[in-house]
Amino acid sequence: MNQKHDAEPSPASARAEIARQKMLTAALDVFGRYGFDGASTRQLTEAAGVNLQAIPYYFGSKEGLYIATAEFLMARIDTHVGDMRARIGAHLLTLDAAGERLAEAEARRFLTEILQTMVTLFVGKESESWARFLIREQMEPTEAFTRVYQGIMRPMIEMGRRLIGAILREDPASEHVRLRTFNLLGSILVFRVTHAAVLAQMEWDAVGPEQVETLRGLAAELVDLLGPPQGGAA
């Protein structure tokens, strides 16, 4: 009984963790809207409902909060893609260890799963603040971009290259496969980046469950259409 009680967090530490999570959630939105330089410490703390001393207390500095926000974003994304990435990655490692090739049908199935997961993840309301933060880091990369790229983006892109290479029957490291990978990923991310234009052109009031299923179907269609260029390898 005493050991179990000792293992439980104290009320003070539990409150501290709640406050920290509130700050990170607020910071993701504020930094996404105004950037690192444009976001003031007062804006950040007021959005989280904490006092000005909370930033140095929990994160050391505004810079520390910014990096922690990037890591918080990575963790949020990983809750959606981590298990899938681990499962597909383990299968690819098993094939490599056995000296076997990845079958095209299997590559298409995995790639469809990845793109449909991206649709569900990135067109929803929750990802608005994520997109703002990531787009700013794409335009003016900082240490935060390096961490997000190495921790989330690079592994997923390289997995996509492996699958697309199997479908195109080309080296995943080739320039052509790299470009096709970004082209395919962009075909999904465009629905977040050009959200307002999509709503206007599609005459949708919002992107709800019905629209998400439509876009998931489109993701599967894009994978079905993927193939070697005419006159390419047979």
Describe this structure in words.
The protein is mainly alpha-helical and 234 residues long. The chain folds into two domains: 11-59, Arc Repressor Mutant, subunit A (Orthogonal Bundle); 66-225, Tetracycline Repressor, domain 2 (Orthogonal Bundle). The protein is built from eleven helices and no strands. It has helices at residues 2-7, 11-38, 41-48, 54-59, 62-98, 104-122, 128-139, 143-168, 175-193, 195-202, 209-225. Helix 2 packs across helix 5 (62-98). The longest helix has 37 residues, at 62-98. The chain is globular, with a radius of gyration of 21 Å. Keywords: DNA-binding. This is DUF1956 domain-containing protein. Residues 17-77 form the HTH tetR-type domain.
Work out the oligomeric state of the chains in this entry: single chain
Major β-sheet annotation: none
Helical fraction equals over 70%
Summed up, the helix count is 11
